[in-house]
């Protein structure tokens, strides 16, 4: 690993790998998901990236068969796409297996009007409902320009925390994805389990299947040259660990954990300050923090994307049609109230 202070960080040129805008859509994600995690869920069948999942509702009395993109549980913070290939697989399903509804998430930038028209032409009804908000940081003008985009209160709070932490000599740590891979994830999983078990009583990384998926996904990203492993040291001790995904001009930040040290110095906020500065220094245009209505995301994001959830009903399924009718009625009621 390499330790660097923010002052000594220098810009580096890099050859960005080609990939979809959202990391969910790269092949490196769905393969490890099917291998490590699919067995944990009631998957009845699959085609391409689609999984047919059985959900039991009303104390098991209602059987809902739902089509979801592979990895929906692990990609909850990211939007999905309905590409031509995805749509071809979906349309082929109608003759292969019974199902009730299908759904995925996207943002207006990824809304595929052509795909929706094809669905209509094939006799499918659909509706879009509000989803989560994705919080992003605009780094296109550099780090100092980003700081100037923040409101005065947010900028003051951020700089105050960073200034306070300077007494602990914070250092940005860039782990080598080849040499430090095993050591990094051993630390990350250990700290994740300790933190979330104490906070909520459970860490999803206590499950061996989740651990296997994380390692396999990270290995696949490493092979594509997309894996970034970071840390922040304070007073020579690791205070924060983080994994990011290099998608050309976009950097995605799906995993982060505090180690529990120096909580009074806000290690998570200070680490994010250093991560953003280093990302801008490397030429990334956008830093994607994902969803989650956390205070720090509201304070530090300069771009927001509103997700929409696309629901598609099987016209041959009374249950699917009734679900869509209920969603449409709720949306109409909401519009009247506004």
Describe this structure in words.
The structure is a single chain. It is globular and about 65 Å long. It has a 12-stranded mixed β-sheet with strand order 1-7-8-9-10-11-6-12-5-4-3-2, with helices on both faces. It is an alpha+beta fold and 338 residues long. It has 10 helices and 12 strands. α1 packs antiparallel against α7 (208-223) and α5 (152-165) packs across α8. The longest helix is centred in the middle third of the chain and has 20 residues, at 181-200. β10, α8 (267-282) and β11 form a beta-alpha-beta unit. It has helices at residues 27-36, 84-93, 113-121, 143-149, 152-165, 181-200, 208-223, 267-282, 295-300, 318-337; strands spanning 2-4, 43-47, 50-57, 62-69, 101-106, 125-138, 171-175, 227-234, 237-247, 250-258, 286-288, 303-313. It is 38% helix and 27% strand.
- Compute the CA-based radius of gyration: 22 Å
Strand order of the largest sheet: 1-7-8-9-10-11-6-12-5-4-3-2
Report, as a whole number of angstroms, the end-to-end distance.
54 Å
> What is the number of strand segments?
12
Structural class: alpha+beta
The portion of residues assigned to helices is 25-40%
* Fraction in beta strands: 25-35%
Our count of helices gives: 10
Major beta-sheet overview: 12 strands, mixed
Mean pLDDT value = 87
Shape: globular
By oligomeric state, this entry counts as single chain
